[in-house]
Structures are given as C-alpha cells and as structure tokens.
Amino acid sequence: QVQLVESGGGLVQAGGSLRLSCAASGSIFSINAMAWYRQAPGKQRESVAGITSGGNTNYADSVKGRFTISRDNAKNTVYLQMNSLKPEDTAVYYCNAVITVVPALPGNEYDYWGQGTQVTVSS
Known about the structure:
Blueprint: E1 2-7, E2 10-13, E3 18-26, E4 28-39, E5 46-51, E6 57-59, E7 67-72, E8 77-82, E9 91-101, E10 109-113, E11 117-122
Parallel strand pairs: 2-11
Antiparallel strand pairs: 1-3, 3-8, 4-5, 4-9, 5-6, 7-8, 9-10, 9-11
C-alpha cells in the first residue's frame, strides 16, 4: 500500500519559520496533485496550498506571500515552507496526495492522507 509520512512541525514564535515535509512511499506508479491542509481546534479542515504534477501551485488567501509549496518528484516528497508565521497558523497540518498505485490500471487512483503534524505559533 501507500503511506504519507509528515515531519517538520513544532513550536515557533510569531514571525518565525518552519518547513514541513511529506514523503510518500509504497506501491506508487505516479503521484498527481499534492497538497497541504490544516485543522485548528474547533474548526473544519481547510486547504492551505496545492501543487500539480506539472508544478502549478495555488494558495489560500490567508497564506499567500508567506507560504511556499514545492515538490521533489524524484523523492516523492512535498514541502511547505512557512515564513512570517502567525498565531492563527496554529493547527495540525495534513499532507494529501492523489496517487496512482501499481498496477496502473483504470481506477487505481486514490486519495491518501498523512497522519498530521502539529504546528504551534506562540505570540
């Protein structure tokens, strides 16, 4: 099967930076879109940033200009560079990927989620 493993979360002061990583492993034929989501206590999960297999990106308005999503296709890894962090960025961050698994038959494309990594920004 396929696993997504996130790393890089932690505690940082407002104005600081963190870099999240998410590595996919397993029976992967290809990775299509990859994305980061977050969920703060008492709130719904929301999209933060996404990147297509071709490198096109999109961002939530709340993080534009501060966060950068990128991917290394050779390593099956997606990154989220977070700068100028604010207390309102505090949340559990989840990696998401749309993956075609081996064998690459029609219908073998699935949506996978990581386990989440905590990001806490203190004021």
